[in-house]
Each structure stands twice: as structure tokens, then as C-alpha cells.
Design goal:
By secondary structure, this protein is an alpha+beta fold. It is 34% helix and 21% strand. Helix 2 (31-42) crosses helix 10 (379-393), helix 13 crosses helix 15 (484-499) and helix 14 (470-477) packs across helix 15 (484-499). The chain starts with 6 loop residues before the first helix and ends with a helix. The structure holds flavin-adenine dinucleotide.
Length: 500
């Protein structure tokens, strides 16, 4: 079946949705829900998957975009979770999304603030992380091992570092997504290619084990979707649909810097947080040249907002930590944008939760299966577990998960490789040639917008990636919107793409 998502397909499938009895209804189209839709559809089950807003509207677009090897879990003694994370990283790199996940080098600069003992402890951790890579059978050619490097080499990889007192750096490697929202779009489209009905702008008002009352947010009309089983994958909003669930969200803030702000930064940085022995801020260079700096961890009380805001105290904190390793300190005026996301953490002591891994499955009295917590990295495993649970609950008679070896849209060989710019290849994989063809048809579509995105990519997003309005285009199909000035500059092009 066709993988293209667009307004016409949405209308068609929405019109049919009320008349059908689906095997699985998935609520929420972040990485977890889109992953669950794909897992279920690829087992041959009939699937409807809805989101109140857009694909990747929630936490899944506010991540650090790292595909973790599980080192942080190892540090907490959670060996099983660490291994699972490393395995999932390997699957993404090798089989499912090699076009969207890259190996990224990171440096921990050995400044006077890092003692010899601390450096040795961190290096031991990196070696254990490399052991996890080996245990997960991810070849070293995809993720090189750690090394201690000289100050000269560190400065050649990260020119903005201060050379004063720099003894060298610890070099390590981990996975990085070209864009977290693009992973979700690829998951949703791959699910659609297996027959899943992907319906954005459809809010679940009430859930039960046999379906949901749904409101089409574009028209205001309400209708029912009937299903044999229901997965609640609404992340930090999960408790709004099941009052027995209690969430304890935690805010993580990132700064967004323009490419010219830290010239010569070719590696990411782990920056020790002053006064803490084992916490680091992250400096994360992106494929589009921008650099993100994160990451805070602050408990948040009260109602969960649609779009969390980054408070100024988080911005000041991150700037302070970053400046502790830079040759030329940055000021508030150098911060071109900010974003914040809420970690979907489950409050302990609620209902019986399967907390043996970092994510949890909870089954409500009416049979709704909520899958929550975890990480972007482990979305596939979360999806598999959730679908296993509903298959058993609904006696759906489907086999086991098939997603471990199922390439996502774009994962195949790149056609016309020679003619296609690397930037397009990195974002579209095997579809890059088709995006390029749009520019050949109409050279005006080759015009670049902020971050190098072309008008053709906006048109592609409308035709094939389910973008319905300018917000979808600027804030999720592309990330132009992370810098407000860039967003304003690209707004006319986004409007034009919708009318093209
Ligand atoms: C700051 C930060 C950095 C992170 N960095 C990383 C990282 O580098 N690597 C990593 O692996 N993980 C990272 N994580 C964790 C990861 O981002 C999340 O665990 C993951 O994205 C959660 O995805 P999800 O699909 O469960 O939830 P979400 O992405 O939040 O999706 C939930 C969806 O449900 C929809 N929804 C809500 N209510 C309704 C309703 N009533 N009806 C229909 N739809 C509804 C929302 O619109 C939303 O799209 C980070 C998290 C944060 C906060």
C-alpha cells in the first residue's frame, strides 16, 4: 500500500473510520504510538492511530536526538535496560533507519575542573559502554571505540574549546538522529504502507477497552472508533485519558545556537556540570549546522501544557555550564532559540506497573493498555511489548513482532546517488531522488530557506508526509521553527507550499 500521508488520504480514511471495527486503536502519534501502529500493522492487524494534533507533536520532537547505547542505565546498575538500549541502537543503525541515525563523536574536555580520578572513572564507563556495543553486536565500523586524545586533536574537533589548561579530551561515540520528528514521520508512513489509518487532528475524548470517542479537531464533529483493543500512547498526557495513572513530568530545556555561533565544532561535547561528579551538559551539533545545548531536569507540577516553555533560569544555567569550557564565552544574545520537553515519567506507587524495564505497561479496568515512559531509543521495544499485551488481551491471533528487521520508509538504497546532495540523502534516504526530481520539474522549488531546507521539501511534506498546515511544515516536518526569526522568514514559503 502507498506510504504517502496527505489531506486527501486523511479525509478518505476518516470518513470510513466510524464504520469499521479495528483490531487495534492507537492513541498518540509520538515515537511510541507510531511505533505501536507499525508493530501492529506489520503483524497483519487492522489499525487506526490518532493524534490530537500532528505526528510528533509531543515530547518526541523535543528530545536531544540521541540514540543512546545505554551507558547511563549501566551506571545505575540496570544491566538489562542498558543492553536493551544498545540492541535497539544497533537495530536502528543497521537495519531499520540507517538513513536517519548516525554515529556522533563526543568529547569530554579535560579542563582543570576535571580531576585525573574523575577522568579515569568516566573512561572506565566509556569502555563499559563499548562492551555494551559489542554485546549488542553493533560493529565497530558503525560506532568506533573510546579513546583519550591530545589537546591539539581536541581543539581540531572542537575549536571553540578554551585551550587554557586543556590536557586533552576523552572521545566517545553514540547514535544521533538526524531529526527526532522525522523518525516519527517515517514510522507513521511505514505503518501507513502496511495499511494503518494514520489520522492526525483527531482527539480521543474518552477511552475504553473497546474504542474511543473522538473529536475531529478540524471540524469539531465527534464520532466513535470501535476497536477490539486500545493502546494509550499519549506520553505525558496519558493520565488525562486514564485517571488511575499518575505522571510526574520532568522538564528538559535545550538552547538552539546558529551555525556561526560556535564555528569549528565538529564533535559533540560532554561538559561536566560544576559541583556535580557525574552529571554532564550536552553540546549537540546538528546536521543543519545549528547546535543544541542541553539539558536540564526539573520536576514540573500542575496541568500539562501543549507546548512547554523554557524558563530563563534554565537558559542562564545552560549558558553558565557551556561557558565553563569555551574560549570566548557566549551571552544571552547568542541564543537564537530555546525548546523544552516534558519527560513522561510515571509517578511511583500508582497502579500495578511493570517497571522491570524503564517503560511501563498498565492495563485499565476496561482493558485500555497504556504504554508510557522509556526513551525514544527504545520506542520499538515499547511498541512490541504494548502490541504483545493487546494481542493477548484481545486474543487477536497475531504472531510476534516483525519490526526488528523492518526497514522504515527511506531506509533502502539511494537511487540516483550521484545527483542527490548529501543533505537530502541524510533526511530522505532512498526518497531523496524523488525530492530532487521536484526541483528538476520546477527550479523555483530549489530555493533554499533557513537551515538550507528547500521549498521542494515543504511541497514533499504536504504531498507525502501528512503536513496539513504551516505549523506542521515549520515545526515538525522541518525544524526551521526552532529559531523564531527563521520561522518568520520561512512562513510565506510554507503558505505557498500548502497552496502549490
Ligand atoms: C528534553 C528531553 C530530551 C530527551 N532526549 C532523549 C534522547 O536524546 N534520546 C532518547 O532516546 N530519548 C530522549 N528523551 C525521551 C523521549 O523523548 C521520550 O521518551 C519519547 O519521545 C516519548 O514519546 P511518546 O510517543 O511516548 O510521547 P509523545 O511524543 O509525547 O507522544 C504523545 C502524543 O500523544 C498525543 N496526545 C495526547 N493526548 C491525546 C489525546 N487525548 N488524543 C489523541 N492524541 C493525544 C500528543 O499530541 C502527542 O503527539 C528525551 C525527553 C526529553 C523531555
Amino acid at each position: 500500500m502507498n506510504s504517502s500521508l496527505n489531506a486527501a488520504r486523511r479525509s478518505r480514511e476518516l470518513a470510513e473510520a466510524g464504520d469499521l471495527l479495528m483490531d487495534v486503536l492507537v492513541v498518540g502519534l509520538g515515537a511510541t504510538g507510531a511505533g505501536a501502529a507499525l508493530d501492529a500493522a506489520s503483524r497483519g492487524l487492522s489499525v487506526a492511530a490518532i493524534d490530537a494534533h500532528d505526528l510528533a507533536f509531543g515530547t518526541s520532537r523535543w528530545s536531544s536526538k540521541m540514540i543512546h547505547g545505554g551507558l547511563r542505565y549501566l551506571a545505575k546498575g540496570q544491566v538489562k535496560v542498558a543492553h536493551e538500549s544498545a540492541v535497539e541502537r544497533g537495530l536502528l543503525l543497521r537495519h531499520t533507519a540507517p538513513h536517519l541515525v548516525r554515529a556522533q563523536p563526543y568529547l569530554l574536555p579535560l579542563t582543570p575542573a576535571v580531576s585525573g580520578g574523575q577522568a579515569a572513572t568516566v573512561m572506565t564507563g566509556y569502555r563499559l559502554g563499548d562492551g555494551l556495543r559489542m554485546a549488542a553486536r553493533t560493529p565497530r565500523r558503525l560506532l568506533p571505540g573510546p579513546a583519550r586524545i591530545s589537546a591539539g586533536r581536541a581543539l581540531s574537533l572542537a575549536a571553540p574549546l578554551s585551550p587554557n589548561g586543556l590536557r586533552g579530551a576523552l572521545l566517545s561515540w553514540d547514535g544521533r538522529l538526524v531529526d527526532d520528528a522525522r523518525l516519527v514521520v517515517a514510522l507513521a508512513r511505514t505503518a501507513a504502507s502496511r495499511g494503518a489509518r494514520i489520522l492526525t487532528r483527531c482527539r480521543a475524548l474518552e477511552l475504553a477497552g473497546d474504542g474511543a470517542r473522538v473529536r475531529d479537531e478540524l471540524t469539531g464533529s465527534t464520532f466513535a472508533i470501535r476497536a477490539r483493543t486500545v493502546v494509550n500512547a499519549t506520553g505525558v498526557w496519558a493520565a488525562q485519558l486514564d485517571p488511575d495513572i499518575r505522571m510526574r513530568p520532568s522538564r528538559g530545556t535545550h538552547l538552539v545556537l546558529r551555525p556561526e555561533t560556535l564555528p569549528g565544532l565538529r564533535a559533540g561535547l560532554h561538559v561536566p556540570i560544576p559541583g556535580e561528579s557525574n552529571r554532564f551538559a550536552l553540546v549537540l551539533p546538528q546536521s543543519d549546522g545549528r547546535v543544541y545545548v542541553g539539558l536540564t531536569d526539573e520536576p514540573v507540577e500542575g496541568p500539562v501544557p501543549d507546548v512547554p516553555q523554557a524558563p530563563e533560569e534554565d537558559v542562564a544555567f545552560l549558558l553558565d555550564v557551556l561557558n565553563s569550557v569555551l574560549g570566548v564565552p557566549l551571552g544571552r544574545q547568542d541564543v537564537a532559540g530555546t525548546y523544552a520537553g516534558l519527560r513522561p515519567l510515571l509517578a511511583a506507587g500508582g497502579r500495578t506497573a511493570d517497571l522491570s524495564r524503564e517503560h511501563a505497561l498498565l492495563t485499565s479496568g476496561s482493558g485500555v493498555v497504556t504504554v508510557v515512559g522509556g526513551k525514544l531509543t527504545t520506542y520499538r521495544r515499547m511498541a512490541e511489548d504494548a502490541v504483545d499485551r493487546v494481542v493477548a488481551l484481545g486474543r487477536l491471533g497475531a504472531g510476534g513482532s516483525r519490526t526488528a528487521r523492518l526497514p522504515l520508509i527511506g531506509a533502502g538504497a539511494v537511487q540516483e546517488a550521484g545527483a542527490v546532495p548529501d543533505r537530502l540523502r541524510a533526511r530522505y534516504g532512498s526518497e531523496a531522488g524523488a525530492v530532487r526530481a521536484l526541483m528538476a520539474e520546477d527550479p523555483a522549488l530549489a530555493e533554499p530557506l533557513p537551515t538550507g531546507i528547500t521549498r521542494a521539501e515543504l511541497v514533499w511534506a504536504v504531498r507525502h508526509e501528512g503536513a496539513l498546515d504551516v505549523d506542521d511544515l515549520l515545526d515538525r516536518r522541518t525544524r526551521i521553527g526552532l529559531v523564531p526569526e527563521d520561522r518568520a522568514a520561512a512562513l510565506p514559503a510554507a503558505r505557498a507550499a500548502l497552496a502549490y
